[in-house]
Amino acid sequence: MIKRPRISACVITLNEADRIGDCLASLAFCDEVVVVDSGSRDGTRDVAAAHGARVVGHPFEGFRAQKDFAVSQASHDWVLCLDADERVTPALRTSIETARDAGFADAAGYRFARATEYFGAFLRHGNAYPDRVLRLFDRRRGGWRAGREIHEHAVVDGHAATLAGDLEHRAYRSLDDQLARYRRYATMMAEHMHAAGRRAHLHNLVLNPFWRFLRGYVLRAGFLDGWRGFLFACMEADYVREKFARLWLLRLGATGPASR
User: Fold this and answer.
1) How confident is the model at residue 257 (pLDDT cuts 50, 70, 90)?
2) Which CATH number is 44's domain given?
């Protein structure tokens, strides 16, 4: 008889009282839920505890580092990592439970599609979908090992299988929220790229945003998502432009009169 592995769900939070409840409800099939909070002041910790989660406080040092810490707090070796704005759908839950009942015998980790909700509907094309992410893995054979703290991703030593079903991503509360997130991400990515020796030039401010829009809206058929697909592609292009603008300014600051 195959021994069924136990799963620890790991979630990182900061001021997510309005969304953490639905996230944790979708993780009810897990054997443990660990919430690592970086200083919420809106009742997030109370909501998480009310849903049966074990809440751990930890200062935020970066997305990758925070998720890595959350994994280290888990009681079980198989971990399922979510953000507070994500939900396991019934179809994905069925796929996970089926793999678990088989002992997770075919892989060191599992990836699945992530569907982003955007102004009342889920995007199904473009750069937004299927956006497969590796979030379920054996921490003895993988983890949040990638070096950068932004746009982080988990890796495993061994085969990563794909499960059916979507992970719902309810990322943005409003356009202002999306713009604020993109500004923060652009700053973090520019600083990471600069520290890694990457340098931007003026043509990056034109060609890279154009390519992101072309790839998502045309080549990956983002136009099939209607006005939502167009707006999302525009916002992505603006994010890329700001990222390279900030990287270009860092280059000037490191080599020009401003550094003397």
Assistant:
1) very low
2) 3.90.550.10
